[in-house]
Amino acid sequence: MLGEGIVKGLAETARNFLGSFVDEERLTTVEYPEERLPQAEAARNFPFLIYDGDDAEKGLRCVACQICEKECPPRCIHIEKSKDKKPDYVGKQQFYPAVFDIDVSVCMSCQICVEVCPFEAIRMDTQFELSTDDRFGGLLWTKAELAKTNEYYHSIHPTEAGETDARLDEEKAKVAAKAKPAEAEMQAKA
Amino acid sequence: MSLSFLILALLTLGGAVAAMTLHRLVHCVLALTVALAGLAGLYLNLGAQFVGLAQILVYVGAVAILIVFAVLLTRGAEIASQMDSSRQGRFSALAGGVATAAAVFAVLAWVVLHSPTLSAPAATMTQVAPQAAMQQIGDALMRRYVLPLEVMGLMLTAALIGAVILALEEKPEAQ
Amino acid sequence: MSAMVTRVVLEEEESARGVEGELLEISMGPHHPSTHGVFRMDVRLDGERVTRLKPVFGYLHRNHEKIAEKASYLAAIPYTDRLDYLCSMTNNWGYALAVEKLAGIPVPERAEYIRVITAELTRLQNHASLIGFLLQDMGASGTPLMYAFREREKILDLFESLTGARMMCNYMRFGGVRVDCSSEWLEAAQNIASSFPQFLDEYEQLLTGNEILMARTQGVGALSAELAVNAGITGPMLRASGVNYDLRKVDRYGIYDRFTFRVPLGDHGDVYDRYMIRLLEMRESVKILEQALAAIPEGPIIDPKTRLRGLRPKAGEAYGRIEGPKGELGFFLISDGSTNPYRYKVRPPSMINLTVLEDMCLGRNVADVVVILGSVDIVMGEVDR
Amino acid sequence: MTQAPVQQLDQIFVMLKHWLVGYVPAAAQPVVSSLLSVVAILALFPALFAFTTVLERKGLGRMQNRYGPNRVGPFGLLQPLADGIKSLTKEDVVPRTADKAVHFMAPLLLVAASFLAYAVLPVGRNMAAVNLDAGVLYFFAVGAVAELAVFMAGWSSHNKYSLLGAMRAIAQMISYEVPLILSSLAVIMAAGSLSTVEIAGRQAGYSGIWPHWYVLTPWGLAGFLLFMIAATAETNRSPFDLPEGESEIIAGYYTEYSGFKFALFFLGEYLGMFAISGLGITLFLGGWSAPFSFLTWIPSWIWFFAKLLALIAVFIWMRGTLPRLRMDQLMNFAWKFMLPMALLVMVSAGVWRFLPHGVLRWIVCFVMIAVPYVLLGRGLLQGKKIGKRTYRFAE
């Protein structure tokens, strides 16, 4: 009969109308920014650089190998290798990035840089409220802005950070087993 | 002559003049609508509610829209003025218009002068209450003039069916 | 002089078609509310009847194929996300399949299962939101779309917890998938699979029997099976025309031969059939999901021998194709032995399905054009690449 | 004058007006009296419009499982204020090639015509601005002016979408005016009057607790439904919102309007919707009378506005549910379904009048309407081969 389907549809919307007052499932809106959903642990937005210890300059894990720069699909990473070297986390003398810029207005948050990094130095941040009125400077992040502590990494991706640390510890242990005791001491100091 | 009559008469005449003189056809139609609405106002001013409202409903609501559609669906809307620009043509158009207007006016004047209401005492005219007037119209249509009404209805139905048939015939052509 | 409508001189083609009267030429788009992105149709109207329709696209061209030719095999994957940005999982899979064929990479069992699960979830959310968009084009003030998005949100949340991103998942890799899913994740997917039929019932209650929807869609935009096959139409649109062609059955790529599911087929090929086929396909997808979730084995998720970075397949070529939600999504790769493909070509189902738009629209009116376009299921990111 | 407090409350606005008018010299009293009515209408219905926009957005939101506006003021109630300020401060863009004068006048004419219609609506006992003997006729006559305004807007904008929208709108309004007037004709026949005040008055009695509303007869119910469907089309509301179908022709005849003129179109549209709902209430739902005899102590104007809000809610509900019809289907529906049904309702109303009271006339009138309804509905769908389908599956 004409109108049957229309009445059924009206009943359905009425059900949803009433349901939205009583049923959580039917009112899924989260009133950002007062309310926030818990962030998924795997969430990713833009990359940051990890450093160990307190000194961002000294503890930076990045050795300026430039793999991420090469692999980055939109080519938003710019690295300039340092002239001198500094010891990395296992104590080996390595280059470090004199300049490490990421243009986050170009970055597409794909995480390829994280995957290709052999030094566990770059990871994805979960920060997403990044609006700025400075279109160029504000969206070009330099090394100082990118560097974050390992603790911060632990706080946003605990599982992943745990796995990373385990891997690093293993590596360090390997190096330590091979290395002379003196060097091990030096590393402990560092 | 009351103030309201004056305003309405000016509106009607102004609309009519504008309908003749404006250049864009659509403007002319709109001006004509104003004239028709002014006429309806005059009826209402005279206390003829039914006629006045029917005038709006039919002329403003239907006839004006019909003209507008006709204007839209032909090329006319774009052409500013298709009037014959030659002097002679203009003159003959003017003469024709004046003659028509004079003829219409003469007929109307004759009808008004010979109408029985005018000879009747003025009091009966004003004393007819509007409600009674409406009932009178209904009574007259349904009793005294029922035959003309039916004939007109029949004619309109025939016209409607004719229009439907005309519209239907287009289909096979289009396919 | 008020040129209120562009008067078009009658062309021979029009008079040959028996069009009389004046024609109105309208450029629908690229900024039109229902062209699904920046898409333009040059429409010539006789009254409101379409006498010619020329789709114009390319507004969203991003040089996808050339970029991928200059990027490594790995770096092309995030770009495939952005083809059909509603279905990044299936895009990833299509590309991964092509590379796997090219380089002869095996895929572990668990990864295959995860791929099926994510692909079917993608299909669910794509079809549900497509129907919402279709109804939006029909003027249903957003209600079906909101219901679809309510469900889609759950699936996207699931994707986010697995891959870190809701739409640009960048999840599959040649040789497997990027990260493993937890048992909680599988449980959540199971919840969606078991609650989705209920949502579909609700959706059908709201829409399927609606007289207005039936009147608007039945007999509108009919596409014959012959034309569909000749034009290379694939996906639900082809099946709505009655051609039994589903790559999940034809190619049995991945592990689709292990699941029992049916392929719904339409008889009229009109918009209503396309709508119904999508609804029925969602029910079948739920069946696949249930089976895959029940049977998923433990194991590695990626082939350990595959080098993701600096992959250099032997010189040769390969064409990998999958049944995406929109149709056959194919990736054609030629390798010259270097780290980046020599040639990279996408077969975008959206674009190829769009080619018959004029044939479906001729003689219909503007309102139908919008609905027909909506039923094709296009995403301009994929059409223009 | 001693009146029961209930009656005093019922007549409070009437008394207020009398009291105010009493202060001016006798010569100016008619003018002041009508001015007061005008001011009341001008103040009340735009306020209702403002309230309805929130109601609509919130209602639609809830139907779609969202909150709707809830940021401005408590529960988002001040949202119309923000919208008003926004539309006032927006640039008023007039297309360069537009016919400026007509473009400017169109929204004004629309709003003016919509306001005029309220003159004859009895919003409570003794609460009609004027008691015209041809009230219903007046209402439709004024409504016809709106069509002209729509045409002016569409034509003067010099935009193809506007023109298409205007043509759709006019075709639709003319087509649906026929069933609209025919279905109200049944009531006019039954009431024997064209005066809205009188029609409302006729329905104010009760048998037992049940009111004498026309909607409570078989022909009245059918007439009411037809009237409301035609009213939906007449006011361009979903599912008949083709003239402004945003997915097809952007915004129809007001595509080229911005700023406050755009807001005026909205105002005009909603005012039209209230007015026609008000007429529907007056004709079928007993105007200001209470639904049960034991509820008559509630003031009449509250009943009127309660009914008005209920009808508005139905409008919103339909908008939240239904997709839009197509132009030819709209026309088919008007001429092949609405028109015959409206004629039948008229005949049925006549039969109702002349049959004796009792079960028989209920049955006769019901059958007279229900059987053609089923047949016509079936014809409408099956003639176009529209119906549910079954699908085959390949394994």
TrEMBL record, chain A:
A single GO CC term for this protein reads:
membrane
- The answer to keyword Cell membrane applying to this record is yes
Q: Which Pfam families match?
A: Fer4_7 (PF12838)
Q: Which residues form a coiled coil?
A: none
* Keyword tRNA-binding among UniProt keywords: no
Q: Which domain of life is it from?
A: Bacteria
Provide the 4Fe-4S ferredoxin-type domain boundaries: 52-82, 98-127
Family matches, as InterPro entries: 4Fe4S_Fe-S-bd, 4Fe4S_Fe_S_CS, NADH_quinone_OxRdtase_chainI
Cite the entry's keywords alphabetically: 4Fe-4S, Cell membrane, Iron, Iron-sulfur, Membrane, Metal-binding, NAD, Quinone, Repeat, Translocase, Ubiquinone
A Gene Ontology molecular function term for this protein is: metal ion binding
**UniProt xrefs under PANTHER family:** NADH DEHYDROGENASE UBIQUINONE IRON-SULFUR PROTEIN 8, MITOCHONDRIAL (PTHR10849), NADH-QUINONE OXIDOREDUCTASE SUBUNIT I 2 (PTHR10849:SF24)
What is this protein identified as? Answer: 4Fe-4S dicluster domain-containing protein
What species was this sequence derived from?
A: Paracidobacterium acidisoli
Traced from the root, the source organism's taxonomic lineage reads: Bacteria, Pseudomonadati, Acidobacteriota, Terriglobia, Terriglobales
UniProtKB/TrEMBL annotation, chain B:
Top-level lineage group: Bacteria
**One GO location term (cellular component):** plasma membrane
Chain segments annotated as transmembrane: 47-73, 93-113, 151-168
Q: Which UniProt keywords apply?
A: Cell membrane, Membrane, NAD, Quinone, Transmembrane, Transmembrane helix
Intracellular or extracellular location(s): Cell membrane
Membrane protein topology class = Multi-pass membrane protein
InterPro entries recorded for this chain? NADH_UbQ/plastoQ_OxRdtase_su6, Nuo/plastoQ_OxRdtase_6_NuoJ
Q: Name one GO molecular function term.
A: quinone binding
Which Pfam family name is an example for this entry? Answer: Oxidored_q3
In the Enzyme Commission scheme, what number(s) does this protein have? 7.1.1.-
- Is Membrane among this UniProt entry's keywords? yes
Q: What function does the entry list?
A: NDH-1 shuttles electrons from NADH, via FMN and iron-sulfur (Fe-S) centers, to quinones in the respiratory chain. Couples the redox reaction to proton translocation (for every two electrons transferred, four hydrogen ions are translocated across the cytoplasmic membrane), and thus conserves the redox energy in a proton gradient.
What PANTHER family has UniProt attached to this entry? NADH-UBIQUINONE OXIDOREDUCTASE CHAIN 6
Q: Which family does it belong to?
A: Belongs to the complex I subunit 6 family.
Protein name (record): NADH-quinone oxidoreductase subunit J
Lineage here is: Bacteria, Pseudomonadati, Acidobacteriota, Terriglobia, Terriglobales
